[in-house]
Records
---
Amino acid sequence: MTDLLELAVSILEAGGIYALMALAYLVVLRPTGIINFAVGEWATLASFFSVATLGWWNLPYIPGAVLALAGVAAIGALTEQATVRPMIERGAPILTPILILLGMVVVYREAAALGFGTQNLRVPPPLGFGRIDLGPIAIPMQSAVVIAVSGIMLAGTWAFFERTIWGKAFQAVAIDRVAAGLMGINLRLVAAFSFAGGAAIAGTAGVLQAPLTSAHYLMGLPLAIKGFSALVIGGVGRVEGCILGGLVLAACERLVMRYAPIPSGFAIGVPLLLMILFLLVRPTGLIGARGRT
Amino acid sequence: MSAAPPMLAVENLTAGHGPVTVIDGLSLAVGAREAVALLGPNGAGKSTLVMAIAGTLRSRTGRVDFAGRNLIDLPPHAIVAMGVAVVPEGRRIFAPLSVLDNLHLGAIRLPAARGRIGERYESVFALFPRLAERRQQRAGTLSGGEQQMLAIGRALMSAPTMILLDEPFLGLAPKIVDEILATLHVLRRAGLTVLLVEQKTELALNFCDRAYVMQKGRIVREGSAAALAGDPALSADYFALPAGGPG
């Protein structure tokens, strides 16, 4: 029983981070149609920024984390402005920005390695390494932080998309860019905002992850892969899909690690296997796509 | 044309899609509270002109003055905010969203000076009671006529002073056409300036004060609706299908 509860907590924790990574894809994809594989590097950059704000400058946790996220959000918006917008406005096919952003992965990664080195850097957790006693189990403090913050972030993004007119405007841009412009929706602002938001969300995943595994310049790739798998499993298009995909992915991964008689290194392959399975059997994911006709 | 400056004055406008020039040095004017038809065959560049005025076409040169201000360098959202609304060709409603969301998006640039959103809903629902009945429905599930009503209602949500209608009657049953025409008459009486792009010459000339005839990206004729309607050569000259059938 205790064992299962602890497993459930670890699934919620990993699922929260995967769901955030899936959400980072979605927030860019939904209005722009761009699958942005640089989300993993955004997570890396944010966790390095948190090394600087929290570890080097010793800022209190919340201002330090917010500053790190603001930094990566600014990088996201600048990247859109410098590399994506000129292509879109010249009428380039959507594959062009996707490939450019794939190239930006290398730029970000090497810049991170140059700025912060290639060694592991410790990031202090916000509430220390203690545990909270919760009935039969004791939850590590950082797990509780991860679950709470990712839950708030996912709920907030859901509310933005489903309950606000600007969330609907994002969807309108996805449905028909020209008609959305004719309504008076500022297309440049939506694109810049989606990149900044995607970067901040991926950055949150990075900042949450960093105290658990420490910051490292190669930490982005596995996060990017898991986020993409979660996105495919849950179904592209909705925040609910990200949450479901993240949890299903984390559950499979953790159950395999715990119970399957295979070396733990192979467990890394589980998200890929699951994603391939979904692409073959149910390409629309668990929750079908919506917002496209 | 009266002595007062026109509400919309297009001067020497050249526009196209990328390197392809569709409109070549075109000029036209629409006075305040006037209804002007833009006639012409398929492929004359009528919709390109609408998109160039609305700002969704980026490659354009010349002048587009609206209420005394040149729109040529403004993005579409700034043009909407100035009071120009477009009902695009093919309606282009947001099919997966509800009727209410579609209308709400139309008011995203509603300046406080031109009214509150609640009043806009009321006036659109008064013009199109059917939209009020179906407000929670997904826009894609509406009939063709209702979708056109939604496209017009959505444009009206920004409380425009001028509306550009691009072939709003295409594919609609005669009864629906009459219903929408009646609504457009109400809007005209309320003071809305209209530029109506149409291929149905007779219908457009009945509704409008004046008309321009467009062909291959240029204005080839203009005149009062009455004069053009009385000209039997009009349809034969400008609307005959090119040799070799429809292309």
---
Amino acid sequence: MANKPYGPKYFVPVVAGKAVRAVAKIRGGGSAFPGYVTTRLAPNFLRDVTSQFRYGIVYVLGSNGKSTTTHMLTEVLRGHGLTVFTNPSGANLPQGIASSILAESSVFGRLKADIGVLEVDEAFALEFAAVVPPATVLVLNTQVDQLYRFYETERVADMMLDTAERASAHIVTNREDPYLSKIARRYAAGDATRPDITYFGATEAVIAAAPHGLFNAKDYRDAHITLEPHVARAELVGTDRAGATIDVAGQVIDVILPAKGLHYGIDAAAALATASVILGEDFSGESAAKAFAAMKPAYGRGELLQFGEEQVEFVMFKNAASLQLNLDALPEPPEQVLLAIDEGTPDISWIYDIDFAALDHVDVITGAKAWQIALRLEHEGIRIGTVEPDLKKAIDIMKGLPKPSSGLKTWIVNYEIMMLARKQIGFLELENQR
Amino acid sequence: MSALSILQLYPDELGVAGDRGNVMAVRERLQRSGHEVTIVEHVAGNKLPGAADLVVVGNGPLSAMRNVHADLLASADTLRGYVASGVPLFAYGSGAELFGHGITQLDGSVMDGIEILPFSAERIQTRTVGYVLTETKFGGLVGFEDNASAWHLDRPADALGVLLEGGGNSDGNAEGVLFGSLIGTQIGGPVLPLNPLLTDAIIGFMAANSGFDYAPSAELLDLDRYAEQARDVIVSHAKHVFSRI
């Protein structure tokens, strides 16, 4: 049958793509190209494969927290017995997603899963929605991010809001976000095409207790630059060192978070709101809490790695919001700190908008932008040990420092340095190879 | 002597590119050289102070510019009064554009400026992103630029400097505008922490106008050393890392 979403028609395109993938793997790279080959040979391949999922596809979008929340939602759904297809964290561009779908699919284009949870880069999400239409779109937050790439924050907000409108069933978004909380305004009253809209959020008290709140961007184009109030289906009502308490439609759930901080708490609320709206009656707070308890941190997000006799805690940031929220989450100034930024973050002018009060000193500053960071910290009077732009030498200096009483060294790094530093200390796999 | 005051305009709206860093650089150099400094943040809706020793304004998106526009027009007379009494200005990015004749947007509409700096801004399709190097009468400046804006200077207004690397005003080899002790630039980074020579020149303008003596103290050695190292890296990366993205 010509209109079946799988079958012999996919044999040649899928085998071709898989062959390219096998060759690329041996050569050590090219993870996006195989998806390109298959989708060129069979343009409807991705739509057909993903249309076989009972609950359809979920997109996870946002300035920060995509990988973490995708991971949380995937594990919560698995905890309810679902088979979940998901893209490896960080592989969030269309060709990379296509390649990961290809890798899991049979040669006849079948992929046995109940649901797909995909982290998607916000700049490509709308275009990708035409190829793989989402049933559910979860939009996490709009924060000032990569202005050299996005120019204006409101453009990013619109990319995400436009994509959310493509959801056939559910939109789940952040009540505490000035741009996102206004999504219902995009629909006329009584518009029957409107997907249902669900909000997650945090209580005022929880947000007020954090030194810089949630760091969401203000909506300057609206007369009302802050958020629009709504009832949240999942509300973060408390956080502590290990976990968070989230009220999901009246059911209070205590979860253990894979890493510390208010931002992880609100990501958990986002994952729970989404799971609960997708699963409906089948959602169980107990299953969700069990899934959180078994969860490991997403790659580099609060991960602990062995470093000789000691452990390294990786705190990774991509922009001002993620750095500030991670600093705010430190329970006390870390004993031994490495701070690093390289040219993977081209514009770091925002480091002057960051409050570094959570650090009382930094032992080693490294990366190509090391001197710029030192200059910033000197303006704040924060004590600096060594500035060593060469990462390998900087790691040796960290190794040579006496063992901290906690046994823990804290490395606060941008994404590219995290990849390099992991490699340096013997953790060889790249993010999208997990 | 009473504290020197730095007036920063609209720090939330026009402050997305580390603009607090420019204020901080002036403050640190003055404080470490023995001067007391207060920072006054002007928020839309509030009344401007009667006097200031330096006015600083920074960069923000178009939506934020529209948001503060009415307040800026209402404050224009007070700001012109400062300038008439010799108060220096340091303006970066779209904040500087609002101090010029105005901004022509891509759809042809014009957002009026307050006519203090002698130039007009035009939003253009091409975006310039990357490290920028400029030669000025205060010395060589380095920084990071990220804009899609051409600045057309009035004749015979002076540019702040001559470009060595980067896009600058997107109008010949000029970067920024210099009008007495008023400075407008599209060099970010932020520019003042990275370029102590320019910061000292601005403090020199303040000293001349407000009547105090300024001599950079030995307490500035670490700041200067880190700035110099950061500048060296930027100069060596400017040519081959990325001049455009």
---
Amino acid sequence: MAPQEHQYLLAILLGFATGVIARFCMLRSDYRNYPSYPHGYIIHLSLGAIASILAALAVPALIEEELTAVTFLVLCAQQFRDIRSMERETLMKLEEQALVPRGPDYIEGIAKVFESRNYLVMLVALTVSGAVVLSNWRIGCIAAVIMVGFSLCCMRGSYIGDIAQIHAGTLHFDKSLLYVDDIVLMNVGDPNAREKILQEGVGIVLYPNDDDGRAILNSLGQRQAILHDVSILTGNQLDVGEQEWTPMARKNMKTGALGIFILPNYKNVECVIAAVKRTPILESAAQKPLSSDIGRNIAKGAKQHE
Amino acid sequence: MNDTILAAVTTDEYADKVQGSVAVFIADDEIEQQRTAMLLARIMRGMSHDLENGVMIVVRH
């Protein structure tokens, strides 16, 4: 084998291996149990492997002026867009049987993440293969470590705990209306249900740090994501035909604070607060009114008014 | 709109407060009214709400 060909083979293999490793590292199955082991793993690892081999081939193909191969890569990148719709469809079907659904915003966020992870894998494989071709395998190995670290950094997002202060609230009834502190949640007609809610229910209140946080908590998709994550982490006594135990989130119109009620399996306020804090902020909910003049002026005016 | 009133439960005293096409159940007293509303809610996968005027309704959300 000619030295140049040997170099190409090494570049492709190292790029491919790093891409697969990066995809494996990004394939975290946590409390959300998604993707589910082992079938979801196999689907995503296979797609990640295809993405990385294609990207690893690109640099040697370009150097050899095999432009058809490079065009093929672009064509395949288009195909990865189907991953998003595949994820969306699967999760939407699962929603039909969920007691506390994720909500379309959360699903869209997850679908986007899975698509983007394949592009990240392509970037990792492309960089590593390029580094080997243009320098040597040692530099390629350094690039591999850096790129895997970079792809893991790209996975990190913001959490509810970053944009709001979360405190325990007091659940109480005014006749049939359930409140958490001063926020009205729902009307409960059954006196036995009211008693159970007071005994076993947990009420918490989220106070947004600023107007950006307020806008995020205002999003219905974000509220549903919080309720879903808390229900998964702390358990939920909700069952079919027992809507009194439905977890609920309602806002205080004046302050933008969000009141939440949930009936967990075991009453532990600290755990519920911790679960709310670690709920990811959805891309669709992330709004930044304070980055505009109008938003800042309104916030300033509101402070002066206080 | 997904929310539907499935039934109304009241007592003789407040029976004139419910009209229309909704199914109305008349109970003898408040305890029977609450029990009936709860049973209807369980049977029809709804939730009982108290309108605080002697009428309870079962709603599917």
